[in-house]
Each structure stands twice: as structure tokens, then as C-alpha cells.
Design brief:
Elements: H1 2-16, E1 31-39, E2 45-52, E3 55-63, H2 67-78, E4 94-101, H3 103-119, E5 132-140, E6 143-150, H4 157-172, H5 176-186
Length: 189
């Protein structure tokens, strides 16, 4: 089962982390943070933040429906019950919103994130039931931290990290889908 989940997470990351907004590659930035969300009952999503000329950029990408449930349904439709034809399934699409964050807001965000990262971020209960798995990373120059957590307590270091990221997103993102999906993600934290 672990191998199936790992392949699923890799496929989600591959689909969500490729930006459709332009040519900037956030992974080549000197400073960047990212969290990929795998909620049990909602579509997957990613939040990425990186510095820009006048502040920072936040990118939020989400699936139009859950890739996990699509894959499960597709497996069933490949092997339909005798006498019932297989119905065509449409894979979830990726929708994204990219927003510039003002310099003062970005500076405050990075200061808090740097402080939290210095204290240490590590895996915390990476597996659970009926919640949300999160794979997150933070990079500043040569220093890089990655961790995985499952529905973290907001008082824990991973919970504080995700709260900072989600608060920045909540203040910056404006599309109806982004706001709705963020509310769903908040429900897991």
C-alpha cells in the first residue's frame, strides 16, 4: 500500500508543481517554500512562495477534483461489472492563481518563516486516517528543509509553518475557487 501512496503523491506533485503562469521556475529560486496538500475528502493542492522584485509571489494550484478518487474510479471503470459498459472518465485539471505579495507583507512572512525554520522542522505523524497529509519544503540558499506531516496540531512547528503559509495565501488569493479550496484545507488543520 505504501508504494501506491508514494506513486500517487509523486503524480500529484508532478501535476501541481509545474507552473502554467509563466516561465519562472520557482525551484531555481534562492529562497522558496512549498506545501503540497493531500486532503482525504477534497482535491489536492499546492502553495508555493518565492521572492520577486517588489515582494514575493504566491502560487496556489489545485485539482478540479481529487486525483486519488479519479484513479480509484478509473480502476473500477477498467473492469466494469459484466453487462455494464465502461464510462469515459475525465481526469482532473489543474487550476492556478498567481499573485504578487507586497514587499512589507513578504518581508514579515519570510522573517517569521526563517525564525521557525531555525528552530527546526521535521516529520510529524506522516501517516493517519481521515485527515490531510502535507509534504512541505523550505529553502534559503544552500539550506533546505523538507518534512511530511499528517493533520498537524497548530501548536507544533509543522502546524505553525503551514499556518503562516495558509494565512499569507488567505490574505493574497482572490478567486472563488482559491478561497473555497483554502477554506477546505483550513478545516484539516
Amino acid at each position: 500500500m505504501g508504494d501506491v501512496i508514494q506513486k500517487y503523491k509523486q503524480e500529484v506533485a508532478k501535476r501541481l508543481c509545474k507552473s502554467r503562469a509563466g516561465s519562472f521556475d520557482a525551484s531555481k529560486s534562492e529562497r522558496m517554500t512549498e506545501a503540497i496538500f493531500f486532503p482525504s475528502f477534497h482535491p489536492e493542492a499546492v502553495l508555493q512562495v518565492w521572492p520577486a522584485e517588489a515582494g514575493s509571489v504566491i502560487r496556489f494550484a489545485t485539482m478540479t477534483s481529487s486525483l486519488w478518487y479519479f484513479e480509484q474510479e478509473r480502476g473500477v471503470s477498467k473492469n466494469p461489472v459484466a453487462g455494464k459498459p465502461a464510462r469515459p472518465l475525465m481526469p482532473p485539471e489543474v487550476v492556478e492563481e498567481v499573485v504578487q505579495v507586497p514587499e512589507t507583507t513578504a518581508a514579515r512572512f519570510w522573517r517569521k518563516l526563517d525564525k521557525l525554520a531555525r528552530r527546526g522542522l521535521k516529520d510529524a505523524n506522516p501517516i493517519g486516517v481521515d485527515g490531510m497529509s502535507v509534504v512541505a519544503s523550505y529553502q534559503r540558499g544552500e539550506d533546505a528543509i523538507s518534512f511530511e506531516t499528517w493533520s498537524p496540531d497548530q501548536a507544533s512547528a509543522p502546524g505553525k509553518f503551514l499556518r503562516l503559509l495558509c494565512d499569507l495565501a488567505r490574505d493574497a488569493l482572490k478567486t472563488e475557487l482559491s478561497v473555497e479550496r483554502l477554506e477546505q484545507l483550513f478545516g484539516y488543520l
